[in-house]
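User: Run a structure prediction on this.
Assistant: Running it now.
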Amino acid sequence: MSRVCASASALALIAGVAQADGHQPFAIGEGAFSWDSYTAFAEAHDLSGQSLTITGPWTGNEKAQVDAMLSYFSEATGASVNYSGSDSFEQDIVISARAGSAPNLAVFPQPGLAADMAAQGLLTPMPDGLDDWVRENYAAGDSWVDLSSYPDETGAVDHFGIFYRVDLKSLVWYSPEAFDEMGYDIPESMEDLKVLMDQIVEDGGTPWCLGLGSGAATGWPATDWVEDLMLRTHSPEDYDAWVSNELKFDDPKVIEVIEEYGYFARNDEFVQGGASVAANTDFRDSPKGLFSIPPGCFMHRQASFIPAFFPDDAEIGVDVDFFYFPAYAEKDLGSPVLGAGTLMSVTNPSPAAEVFIEWIKTPIAHELWMAQGNFLTAHIGANPETYMDDAARALADVLQEATTFRFDASDLMPGEIGAGAFWTGMVDYTTGKDAATVAAEIQSRWDAIQ
């Protein structure tokens, strides 16, 4: 399948239009957008004279893109909207909420912070029935409801947000030319993938590029591997229990998954340069083997952001492409997807905030950013033709076909674990330490902070 990526100049052009002409890059009523949802929404809501404040992590070009989307909400309702982005959003929102000066809505890049604020009584529950609406209108809808439902200050679980933008991690990047030359097929299952790996080695090649280096965050690419494999080896309930420490790190199920990661990463025949080199290779440099002649590796498991570190002239669908990191056919766990996303929650209720939640339910609210690029959605009603390019549509297909979606586990665990012991432990394991020992050390750290 051909998947052609929009050029950087095209992305810049659309972002520039969003900034230059009063924030609205698309004429109302034109194109493949679901303008009927816009019209129905506009007819149902009049917020003339009212204002809405929103804060979140989007800055720079992302702020220009969300501002463009918000301009259509203003046009439809008459409300004035002010979005403010901050690199220190996580700190700022807690401070303003505790001080009673929070904006109407906050955009959380991690559910853990939203859960903390819900437990402190700093979030307002979603309207009745929104959870059922998400189940029916989002791919893997139950997962999105689970990720946005938390105990309030009384301990009662309620629904506290709606997810908007989504990122994918369960992807394998490869060279179509190299695959075609060797006669390799895209694996449909994890069993097929392992057969392919053996065939690549037999043919004199190396299956994987791998790099764990990331400065102070070294090790996180390995935790993504483990998280993806956890979803493919055990149930979503086990994954959730692991995130909450009900399933301990030194449980046999977790050790099994770490060792399964080792199947890929600790076999020097499977990894370019061998495991010790991979542990010290910067993740930004790790895809280079896909583009060398002959190939230094044939595959690279990494998230949807990794093209930012491909050669400038690399064209998705021609020089490089991707496929879904497959599930085990024998496990019968469906098609799980690992990723991340942004959650919109009410931090200062108002009539305009209630109407904005209704806006996010409309297909048009998603399509208006889809068409600008750098955006995926789980909303099954959004028209995929409005995605900016074929690559985005192909990524969306992976998301839409997911039976389970789970947030990056290390982002949900306490920082000392998810952004500390887990990272370093996976580096230790990759370079030779026993899985049971590593798991016990991580669990010991977790026990010490509770």
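The chain is about 45% helix and 10% strand.
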